[in-house]
Amino acid sequence: MRRYLLILAYVLFCCHSQAQNDSLLYRLTPFVKGGLTIGFFEGKTSSDSSVGHTGFHLETGVWFPIHRGKRDTWCLIPSLRFITKGDTWELSDDERVFANMQYIEMPVDVAICFSSKKCHGLIGGGLYIGYGIGGRLSGSDNLYIYHGYRLKEKPAVFGSEVRVNRWDYGFNLMGAVQLWHLYLSVDFDLGLAKLAPSRLDGNDNSSNVAISLSVGYAF
User: Fold this and answer.
1) pTM for the complete prediction?
2) 119-126 average pLDDT score
3) What's the CA gap between 219 and 194, in Å, rounded?
């Protein structure tokens, strides 16, 4: 009986070790995540005070190992993300302008995973491309934009009134700490595409910047 118990313990140990090597970032692993996004415009020529835009994101993708080592592995991480971006400007104590933009993005990152007995850590970066699918410009009742459009009427950001560029692209930096199937991550989008042509500012050279904090699950 004792011999059978030892054999069973040995089999379980081998299975556990193999599972550690084959699970999560050591195999093709789908994931989902979502959380808070803080966005703002970088490079505005206007002197208005920017306080940023608070939104959210939802993302699904896959960790694809491309090189495996004893203590680390390199992963290719393509994903599809819905994200809200934008900014808020304080023109005075009682006047504000809100830009809320919604995008579908496709980030593609390369990351290195450092493994320990209890958790994994990832750090990496890559490129992303996005397309604006909606959003509104709003603000105080007495504010107008070009050609007399009132912010009270909330014109479409990507519509004929404001004409913000729908396409967005740039660099994405990411980091994550993963404990078995659950993980926490942070992403930093640095946009390269100019939001102009727009009627927010005739000389506006702004681009999107966003910081995303996520809670995720790896299958």
Assistant:
1) 0.80
2) 88
3) 37
